[in-house]
Amino acid sequence: MTEREHTENIPLYAKNPFELRVNLGRDIPETDVRTALATGDMGFLHSFTTGSTVDGPGVRVVAWTTGCQFRCLYCHNPDTWTMSNGIPITIEKAAAELRKYRTGLKAMSGGFTLSGGEPLMQDRFAVKLFAAARSMGIHTALDTNGSLGGRLTDAELETIDLVLLDIKSWDTERHRRLTGMDVCSSPVLRSPLSRLQKACLGTICIGSGVHRRFREHSRDCKIRCQLRQCRTSGRSTVSSNGPI
Question: pTM value?
Answer without folding.
Answer: 0.79
